[in-house]
Amino acid sequence: MNYKGSGKVHFGVDDMSLYGTPKEDPGPITMGSVETSKQSFLKNQLQALFQPTDNKLAMKLFGSKKALMKERIRQKASGHWVIHPCSSFRFYWDLCMLLLLVANLIILPVAISFFNDDLSTRWIAFNCLSDTIFLIDIVVNFRTGIMQQDNAEQVILDPRLIARHYLRDVVFSRPHFIDTFRLYIFNFQSGLFYTAEFLNMASVFMRIFNLICMMLLIGHWSGCLQFLVPMLQGFPANSWVAINELQESYWLEQYSWALFKAMSHMLCIGYGRFPPQSLTDMWLTMLSMISGATCYALFLGHATNLIQSLDSSRRQYREKVKQVEEYMAYRKLPREMRQRITEYFEHRYQGKFFDEDIILGELSEKLREDVINYNCRSLVASVPFFANADSNFVSDVVTKLKYEVFQPGDIIIKEGTIGTKMYFIQEGIVDIVMANGEVATSLSDGSYFGEICLLTNARRVASVRSETYCNLFSLSVDHFNAVLDQYPLMRRTMESVAAERLNKIGKNPNLLAHREEDLGSESKTINAVVNALAAEADHTNMSQESVAKMHCEGDCDSLSEHCFERSPQKRTVLPRPKSENNFLSQDISLVISSNGKPLFHKSDTIHKQMQ
């Protein structure tokens, strides 16, 4: 911009281009430049209409929007006015052609059979318009890119290669009538599926709809043929049209009787109103029966496959149950055991069988973790140990859990065995059984048990028996140690809680004292966790204590040897043991205190104040 009184040219912000150079003066606006601008705008809009859009079909072919953008650039760089098969124009054009094709498949047989000598102006106009559009469709096909079968991502955009492709199909085609019929059917089916891809409809339901439409269309053609042949013969006296006196009837009545006769033949339910009286009528009847039986067989086969594919997991479950029944018969298992096995499968799989390990193994690590976290959401919500823990720790634990189902009466943990697992109860009730066979207490949803044995490498001193059907998640000792090695504070917290339990039963509880000098500031956090655990236990187990009192009336003295108080109290600092083996040599796992109640209940979880 040149200011008066100055010998210099100054450029403002609006005078600079995106590249930092002065903008060129566009010059005066003329009518020619306006027309050129309009033509350029229309050209760009038309090219954009012919380019691929981010629809479902295009994303399936190219995989990403970046690859789709490269395809647009490639099409624009080709310099040819070629319609991309994934463009919006091609979609709407195919949709219009599909509607016009269906209209011709329905209207043409009716017009030929019932309106041969009475062609109105509207019919002639429709016929001419449809023929013109079909001719235009040929031109559009010659200007539409072709997706290669061996390389679907590479679309042919060269007009010469496109024309050579279509001409080669015409030259090496089979007889015209067969190809025409196959072309109609193929276009009708592919049009439906192509539309379904864009509209994001389920392909299964589209296949069922396609089969129904094909049966109705063949029935429509057969009905028109049933009337066309007698009409070409001049309606002889023994034809079904003359017998029913339909020569001068309205075309809709004629079509209705013809369709009824054809559908009766195709469905093999009769001959219509009258059986065939002439040789021609008999041959038409047999043709309808053959076509109907063929369509019925195809429809039945496709419908059966579709139904099986809709519920493949239930079908696999039935096959698995059949294999199990054959195995039980081969091994001659007793009736009671067979009943238990059958009930286990019914409860475990709920009528649907699938290999969850294979399914999860084929997912990405992040997606697999999300699925497992979602499947274990009820467990995480019901177990305070998980609900109050760090989210990363919870994710590492739940991804290593194994789902297990136990029937009523199953021994989950057996006394005297070496502990290799700890369990979380998702649903169900288990009983803590003492050595004398008495039930010390029961655990339900959200409880966990067996962790002390993993911390101490000790043997089980009590058994755990399922009272009802139990859905549990188990954590093996290897996974248990692998997770706690990554979260040492969580290990020390669990050891502190375990030591608190041992302190209640008079065992050597010095589990953490030998690490006191390593804890530093974390010891305060662990003590806070233990205090929170005690407060939570007092609140959550009052109702369970009242129930336990009702059961032990009259027999509390005999049971008190195996019970202890549920609510742990804040413990003092424990003395350092002379040797860690003093504790590890104790046979403890499912710890029972001297005054009666088990340590394994819903309140025996960890750290509300960790976060």
Automatic annotation (TrEMBL):
Membrane topology of this protein: Multi-pass membrane protein
Domain of life: Eukaryota
PROSITE patterns the UniProt entry points to: CNMP_BINDING_1 (PS00888), CNMP_BINDING_3 (PS50042)
A Pfam family it matches: Ion_trans_N
Any GO MF annotation of the entry: voltage-gated potassium channel activity
Single GO cellular component term: HCN channel complex
Membrane-spanning segments: 91-115, 121-140, 208-229
Subcellular location per the Swiss-Prot or TrEMBL entry: Cell membrane
Keyword entries, A-Z: Cell membrane, Membrane, Transmembrane, Transmembrane helix
Annotated Cyclic nucleotide-binding domain residues: 385-501
Gene Ontology process terms (BP): regulation of membrane depolarization; sodium ion transmembrane transport
Name listed for the protein in its UniProt record: Cyclic nucleotide-binding domain-containing protein
Species of the source: Ceutorhynchus assimilis (cabbage seed weevil)
